Amino acid sequence: MEVALNNRTCGDCQLCCRLLPVKDIAKPASTKCKHQKHGTGCAIYATRPLSCRVWSCGWLTDEATATLSRPDRSHYVIDPSPDFIEYEDNETGARTPIPVLQIWCDPKHPDAHRDPALRAMLEENRVISIIRYNNLDAFVLFPPSALTGGQWHEHTSATRVAGHSAAEIANAIQGATMTDHTEGLRRAMLADNQPLHDLAVADQRWTTEELQRDFTVQSFAAPFVVVTRKADGVRGSMEFTHSPRFYFNFVADR
Ligand code: SF4
Ligand code: SF4
User: Fold this and answer.
1) Residue at 143 is within a domain
2) Taking CB atoms and a 6 Å cutoff, what residues make up the pocket around ligand 2?
3) Same-domain check for residues 27 and 132
4) For the chain, how many structural domains are there in total?
5) What is the model's pLDDT at position 30?
6) pLDDT means over runs of 10, the chain (254 residues)
7) In a domain? residue 180
8) 167 close to 189: Cβ distance less than 8 angstroms
9) Ligand 1 geometric centre to CA of 38 (Å)
């Protein structure tokens, strides 16, 4: 939970602490957090995981959600953490990442995403969203303004839709220096301080000097840098934080 940033406040809500996954404490999505206490909120607030600290609630922080009800009343949580779907061109097979807004829908209220106020907000802002019920079950919701048919489209893939990690977003920027379809995703990552969180759980980190020793830098697309590993010539990307400056999570090209 967060403190209020405007005239909206959490009150007795606590829905984010049930619906969202928290990797740091192995909490699955749509499962009540073991630290969540009725009437008090987070029992470990002062020492809560970094991912809980850096996360922002879309209902509290985004002016575009001003017409929406508090999450425990609307039964969904708007999660500004970046994610994407991939559009595959049928003729060329080229895959293009498209940013989506994550909305965690309470499985006890599976149709909550039909809230007219939510639909109006998504349509007005031409926002494609992914409606998530748990770690895997989800569908992509296209507003009429994003399609030519003039109707809402709920696209349920034959495969289940896991969230993308920063590493997968990194992979999506490979070769994207000419036409960068990931700018929106990367901006959202920076706005959410996601690199700082990813650094906290990274297996290995490099200082600038260590990076120059082990890799040749090709280009920057914050918060990622495209590199070639000197030891074996493998090209890939790494995430980095500005301050303190560290490089981490090397992902080889696919
Ligand atoms: S979902 Fe938003 S409003 Fe509800 S408790 Fe979490 S941060 Fe507060
Ligand atoms: S650790 Fe605290 S803030 Fe994080 S999900 Fe659990 S109850 Fe919520």
Assistant:
1) yes
2) 1, 17, 22, 33, 35-36, 42, 44, 48-49, 52
3) yes
4) 2
5) 96
6) 65 95 91 91 90 87 91 95 76 76 96 97 92 91 85 73 64 49 71 83 90 86 86 89 89 74
7) yes
8) no
9) 14
